[in-house]
């Protein structure tokens, strides 16, 4: 088995693991979110909600990051390492900064999926990814981040859509 095939198999295993955790946490979060529509929310439910969200975001972001890295590996394209390698906007922008036919084909297929329901275009994707740019690092270290910033702004709808679209593309179409 070639090195690239091994890397792709290992990436796929990691993607599946982080995505599975993400989906379990998302289900829990979405169930709690419905409970919050009631104004008489017990403190223990609020605590459970707060406990779930950072893990949901961290696992979703890491799953999306690994999906992008899977696409780059499949295209024989190098990607960022270290903290910059967790930045979803930086990784997404590699689609535009590297001249590789296979990578461009992946981008075109992914872009078609991201814009299929006409709620996204290149501008809105870029704007939403700016809010997700460092979200993995910010949520992973939420306790530290919140001591120096006013909030963790996140478009939950776009976040879940982006994570789930990337997962579907990598696992079911590549």
Gyration radius, in Å: 17 Å
Task: Compute the number of helices.
Answer: 8
User: How many domains make up the 3D coordinates?
Assistant: 1
* Average pLDDT taken over every residue: 86
Give the strand content. Answer: under 5%
Strand tally is: 0
State the major sheet: none
SSE topology string: HHHHHHHH
Q: What assembly state would you assign to the polypeptide chains in this entry?
A: single chain
Mass-distribution shape: globular
| Residue share in helix | over 70%
Distance between the termini: 18 Å
- What is the structural class? mainly alpha
Low-pLDDT stretches are none
Set down the secondary structure blueprint.
Layout: H1 3-35, H2 43-74, H3 88-97, H4 101-114, H5 122-132, H6 135-140, H7 142-145, H8 156-173
Helix pairs in contact: 1-2, 2-8, 4-8
Structure write-up:
The protein has 8 helices and no strands. It is an all-alpha fold and 174 residues long. It has one domain (3-173). The chain is globular. It starts with a helix and ends with a helix. The model has no long low-confidence stretch (mean pLDDT 86).
Task: Jot down its keywords.
mainly alpha, 174 residues
């Amino acid at each position: 088995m070639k090195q690239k095939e091994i890397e792709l198999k290992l990436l796929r295993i990691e993607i599946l693991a982080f995505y599975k955790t993400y989906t379990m946490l998302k289900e829990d979060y979405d169930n709690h979110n419905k409970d919050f529509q009631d104004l008489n929310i017990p403190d223990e439910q609020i605590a459970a909600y707060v406990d779930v969200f950072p893990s949901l975001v961290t696992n979703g972001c890491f799953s999306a990051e690994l999906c992008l890295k899977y696409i780059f590996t499949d295209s024989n394209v190098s990607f960022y390492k270290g903290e910059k390698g967790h930045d979803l906007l930086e990784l997404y922008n590699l689609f535009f900064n590297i001249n590789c036919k296979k990578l461009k084909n992946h981008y075109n297929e992914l872009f078609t999926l991201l814009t299929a329901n006409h709620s996204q275009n290149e501008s809105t994707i870029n704007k939403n990814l700016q809010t997700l740019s460092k979200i993995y690092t910010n949520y992973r270290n939420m306790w530290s981040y919140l001591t120096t910033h006013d909030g963790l702004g996140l478009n939950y709808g776009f976040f879940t859509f982006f994570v789930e679209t990337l997962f579907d593309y990598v696992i079911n179409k590549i």
